Amino acid sequence: MLITGGSSGLGADMAQVFAGEGASVVVSGRDPERLARVAASHANVAGVDADVTDPDSVKALFDGRTYDIVIANAGIGSSSRLRDTTLADWDAVIATNLTGVFLTLREGMRQVPANGRLIAVSSILGVVGAAYVSAYSAAKHGIVGLVRSAAKEVGKSGITVNAVCPGYLDTEMTQRTVANIMKRTGMSREDAIGALVGGKPDRRLIPPRDVSETVLWLAGDASASVNGQAIVLNGGEH
């Protein structure tokens, strides 16, 4: 199986969960040192340097390999007012968070077997909007539309295409967002996290393992009838 963006955060956690279940896992990313650390953490994990914004790099991930599960997880964070968002900022977010998913799922659809699983990591911001994240939210909304459309194309093949839409995860990316909020507003760390979790009943960041276990289920036989779905994991708030 393949997990893009597997050198840290949710991707690294998913690699551990699947490897622990006996899967042979390839993780890709743009940081060779981090990839090497993830690969060294389990005998079933191998790291491959790749850039999901580059079609040739994505194609090379599949050359000579066969995956029955492909997880398009690679993404970058972004935060700014829409009026202050530069075209370069917009293009960078869309290239990684949406085009990268398209390239990964397209290649996966061409090569996975008839019972294959294609899974994309979107976000709660792919279901609802929020201030200061217009580029990120637009890309994550695009993933949901892409998954729903792709699912219609493969419905008769046995392949399924689904998305998971977690709230703010307890990962390095979110911690950078918290730091940005603190710097911009003068909030305490606790208040900055509170601003992110909003009205969530549990008032907490989402543990990556919650998402990894959901993806594990989507990749298994028990989810064969689940196709074209955007599964929200956000502690009760939509």
Count of extended strands:
7
From N to C, what is the helix and strand string?
EHEHEHEHEHEHHHE
Strand adjacency order, main sheet: 3-2-1-4-5-6-7
Major beta sheet, specifics? 7 strands, parallel
The helix/strand class is alpha/beta
The helix count comes to 8
The coarse overall form would be globular
Averaged pLDDT: 92
| Portion in beta strands | 5-15%
Q: First CA to last CA: what distance? A: 30 Å
Instruction: Report the uncertain regions.
Output: none
Q: What is the helix content?
A: 40-55%
Radius of gyration, in angstroms, nearest whole number: 17 Å
Describe this structure in words.
The protein has 238 residues and is of the alpha/beta class. 46% of the residues lie in helices and 13% in strands. It contains 8 helices and 7 strands, in the order βαβαβαβαβαβαααβ. A 7-stranded parallel beta sheet has the order 3-2-1-4-5-6-7, with helices on both faces. The chain is globular. The mean pLDDT is 92.
Name its key features:
238 residues; globular; single chain; alpha/beta
Write the layout of secondary structure elements.
Blueprint: E1 2-3, H1 9-20, E2 25-29, H2 32-40, E3 45-49, H3 55-62, E4 69-72, H4 87-111, E5 117-121, H5 134-154, E6 160-166, H6 172-185, H7 189-197, H8 208-218, E7 230-233
Parallel strand pairs: 1-2, 1-4, 2-3, 4-5, 5-6, 6-7
